[in-house]
Amino acid sequence: MSQNKEIDVLREISSVVVHERNTDKLMDRILNVLSRKMGMLRATFTLRQDDVFQIEASSGLDEAEIRRGRYRIGEGITGRVAETGTPQYVADIASDSHFLNRTRSHKSGEHVAFLCVPVVLMERIIGTLSIERPTGSHDELQSDLALLEVIGNLTAEAIAIRRQEHQEREDLLAENDRLRNAISGNPHNPGGIIGNCRTMQQVYELIRQVAPTSATVLIRGSSGTGKELVASAIQKMSTRSDKPYIALNCAALPEGLIESELFGHEKGAFTGANSRRIGRVEAADHGTLFLDEIGDLNPASQVKLLRFIQERKFARVGSNEELAADVRIIAATSRDLESLMTEGKFREDLFYRLNVFPILLPDLAKRRCDIILLAEHFMNKYNACYGKSLSKISSPAVNMLMAYHWPGNVRELENCMERAVLTATDDCIHAHNLPPSLQPQGGKFSFIPHDENSNFNALVDAFERELILESLKKNNGNMSAAARELGLSPRVIHYKINRLGIEHS
Fold first, then answer.
1. Which terminus of the chain has fewer CB atoms gathered within 10 Å of its CB, N or C?
2. What digits encode the pLDDT tens for the residues 415-431?
3. Cβ atoms within 10 Å of 214's Cβ, excluding its own
4. Cα–Cα distance between 213 and 47 in angstroms, integer?
5. How many CB atoms lie within 10 A of CB 103?
6. How far are the Cα atoms of 167, 285, 433 from residue 275, in angstroms, in the given order?
């Protein structure tokens, strides 16, 4: 190719690189230029995915060849170029030989040359550019190979930039969706569970993974963390969602009745058994059985449950007839099963049968970024329940909610918000509407929001804000009285109230 033609090719390709923002279209347009300017018969762009180079753009290949176009490093000509970074060509390929290491006869039957160069970015090979063209002299092929190498280098940065822009856009869209969901309470969370912290997002992913299967699930977490909601979400997203969903709290029944509740009994099986009764296992046939507080199951019932999980067969109390049931088991516990096994109170074989797919729920104290989201959800819930119209939570109340350690987890927070809604007299939940357990000791509020992003000025502002708010509250909003109590002049307290954005009436 003459020097003028080479300049013309580079000029046109540089224009494509500058103006085309879509990666796929960029590669297609470059191949189009090569086809028109270099008499190219066929060509491919491959891009690296781990150790495999996949065809991302092509010209002159059929669909079958494109589907087969995957090359590992070191495999064939393309793979060797990808491995060594050295441009290569085969000067004279018969019409029935290999293009990109795949046999195909060219329509014209003429002998062709195969050229392949690496696409290199920052000394890393990110792809290859290969063409097939009518064969020529050694000098012609070397000239074209050098030109292709320049085009590969010119294209490399453009492809990398476009792919980075695409990934950044996808990340921004995902972040935008996450923030929108956080504002709206995330109705797309499994089962409508409230919470968007990273730990809960991991829990949601586990739910989505296991729900469509029939695997046994063990949900673990402290009391009040929402184990029942997770079990319900798994059932609703499963293939058994339209089948029975039966729940049994193993801690709520006397020891002598657990087996009867699980497997049923025959008439006369024990005193008071006046008629046959089917158990929860039988009622849940083809559906899901949720066993809450499985750690409280007595040893005798553990043996019967283990046999059922292993064989999916059982017998009613007082009967020798063996029955079968197709039931998915979801179990939950707040107990430390490992300690119970050490003490001989929980069977190891039953634990391993249940612990097929464990899900661990975090305490509320470990997901503080969800506290206000949950509080607002419960406020709206009890607004509807009690005919109230509360619309906000005051700053002191928010700080009290965030400062509390929540030993009762989400259940305790719900109870607190129900009380607050009942005692509120305007459209806002104030600090004094919250239960005594959340109130600061000695009438002084001690919460300072401290996390890894806090700095000294932020901590001082938070402390000053709480001091002023509490004083204003105690003095019924009288700024002068609050100033006297705090030892400030009216001018200073007025300045601080405006600077800290404190609302007062």
1. C
2. 999 999 999 988 899 98
3. 13
4. 36
5. 8
6. 66, 21, 52
Q: Dump pLDDT digits (tens) for 222-262.
A: 999 999 999 999 999 999 999 999 999 998 888 778 888 89
Alpha helices in 292-370 (DSSP H): 299-311, 337-342, 348-354
pLDDT tens string 147-161 = 888 888 888 888 888
pLDDT at position 369 is: 84
Q: 259-296: string of b/e by CB count within 10 Å (b at 16+)?
A: bbbbbbbbeebeeeeeeebebbbbebbebbbbbbbbbb
399 token code pair: 């700080």
For tokens 């390709």, the residue is 13
288-292 and 88-93: which strand pairing?
Answer: unpaired
Give the separation between CA 116 and CA 303, rounded to whole angstroms.
68
Which of the given ranges, 116-120, 213-217, 453-457, has the highest pLDDT on average? 213-217
Q: Which helix (H) or strand (E) holds 329?
A: strand 328-333
- Residue 136, both tokens: 């020529």
The pLDDT of 433-451, averaged and rounded, is 64
What is the distance between the alpha carbons of residues 79 and 85, in angstroms, rounded to a whole number? 10
For 204, 209, 240, 241, 256, the CA distances from 237, given in Å and listed in that order, are 12, 10, 8, 6, 34
- Measured CA to CA, the distance from residue 417 to residue 430 in angstroms comes to 11
243 SS3 class: coil
Q: Give dist(CA 74, CA 52) in Å, integer.
A: 10
Amino acid at 139: D
Q: Give the C-alpha distances (Å, rounded to integers) separating 458 from 16, 365, 467.
A: 51, 22, 14
0.70 exceeded by the pTM? no
Residues facing 72 on adjacent strands? 52
Higher pLDDT: 220 or 37? It is: 220
Cβ neighbours of residue 242 under 8 Å, at least 6 residues apart? Answer: none
Q: What is the pLDDT of residue 497?
A: 85
Give the DSSP letter of residue 172. Answer: H
Q: How many CA atoms lie within 13 A of 376 on its CB side?
A: 15
Burial category of 397 from C-beta neighbours within 10 Å (exposed 0-12, middle 13-18, buried 19 and up)? buried
DSSP state of 28: H
Residues whose CB is less than 8 angstroms from the CB of residue 109 and which lie 6 or more positions away in sequence, other chains included: 95
In angstroms, the CA 382 to CA 393 distance is: 14
